[in-house]
Amino acid sequence: MKNLKTFALVLLASVVGLMVALRFSGLPDVAVWRTDKLLEILANLAAAVGFVITARRAPGTDRRWRVLLAVAAVFRLAFCVSYFWVDLSGGSLRAALSSAPAIFTASTLLTLAAVLVLARRNGPTPRRSSSRDRLLFWLDGLIVTSSAVVLSWVTALQPVLMDHERVLSPAILISRPIEFLVLLVILMALSRKRQEERQIAMLLVCMGFFAQICGSWGLGYLIPKGVPFETVRFLADITFVCAGVFYALTPWVPVRSRDSGPRRKAGLADHMHFVAPYLPVLATLMFIGLSTAVGARLSAGETYVELGVVAIVLVRQFVTMVDNERLVRRLWDHQRRLRYQAYHDALTGLPNRIAFREQLERLLAHPGTEPAVLFVDLDDFKMINDRHGHAVGDRVLAGIAARLRAVVRPPDLVARLGGDEFGVILVEPGPRSRDIGAKLLAELSKPYSVDGVEHTVRASVGVASAADAREVEGTADAADQLLRLADSAMYLAKNRGKGTLAVHMAT
């Protein structure tokens, strides 16, 4: 896919560069125009052949949209060949142009049918839209509709009404709205294709059709403005040739199935749902820019309508900014919840082993801080789970956590280390480590009432200080040493008969 993108960019740049070079080469205008028309014929021929070849190998839906676009390419190719032949034979180009609206309308309708086939959704039904989605939908619709009014006026109604010499065919009044309708359907379909299997093909069809109608609309808009015909024809030929190149690349885009492996990296096509509503606005601004560049003047009505479109776009962007702010706030809240869940025990709400260890490491790394650790292990707690069930055991654990919180006050920390084990960090223990341990034993030994039944829980507590951990020789860091010493003191308390307190004493 990366090679295809590179090839497409190089091909487009080469073709446009060649056309511009010929334009300013000093060759006769007729020779330049015929060369441009040959390029357009070759591009449409390549598109028709590509769609036919790939359609023969493609199954089902992929074959149908390729066949439809092949027929559309044949229509455009037939018109280009006939128009080129009339020029070579010295016939009337105006008569040849009179058939353009009908031929291009047929090609447009075939493109519409192909887009509808491409946009068929295979998979689960999309979620129901929210009020925010509906608001953005109506704002996008208003943007597109306003641009449609401007484009229809400047490229169809006004040129035909002001064309007293009848250079333009009145059939444009029919073809222009049809072209805009198809563009609207393409944009709506493209905006829903995010990361789906035919998305790149849809994007190329959109770009090809957009280039095609820009050339068509440019002819209808610039000629009545008095722009020299050769200049208008040159600009239109560039867009027509680019459209043919886009169509010629479309059949060779690999089509992914939904289960064809890992999702590819997001690219331009994945962000087109953000850009799609603004493409008609871009087209309108392009025509206004071209008209002012060649010296044409805008009417007051055109100026006011376009200012209205800009105002709607600003409102739409404001809604998007508010929505993005809300999304960022929700993301921030979600991150805070995830962090809380990562560092806290779900049952008791106490910090977990990870939070306990990190707090201990921070204290030990701070010079002059000598924390102490109390390791609390419930004695024979398994009997409560076995006799009364885990639901009762969980409620007892919640009660134990509440009593530990009541005894241990900030900045000291109490945490559930897992199962029936708890830990306490005393930031500045001094001589109070033993007193706090004794108070914990006294509080935990009181009965716990669950559904009218009292449960008695005893605990063994081991106490160790940072000074003791630093005096122990070994390769483990201070945190590991301190935890190991507190754990050893707790087992010493159990060996003394459970329900007691033991303090590690340095030897």
UniProtKB/TrEMBL annotation:
The chain crosses the membrane at residues 39-55, 67-86, 98-119, 135-155, 167-190, 202-222, 234-253, 274-298. Residues 369-506 form the GGDEF domain. InterPro entries: Biofilm_reg_signaling (IPR052155), GGDEF_dom (IPR000160), Nucleotide_cyclase (IPR029787), Rev_trsase/Diguanyl_cyclase (IPR043128). The keyword Membrane applies. Keywords: Membrane, Transmembrane, Transmembrane helix. It comes from the Bacteria. CDD domains: GGDEF. This is GGDEF domain-containing protein. It comes from Allokutzneria multivorans.
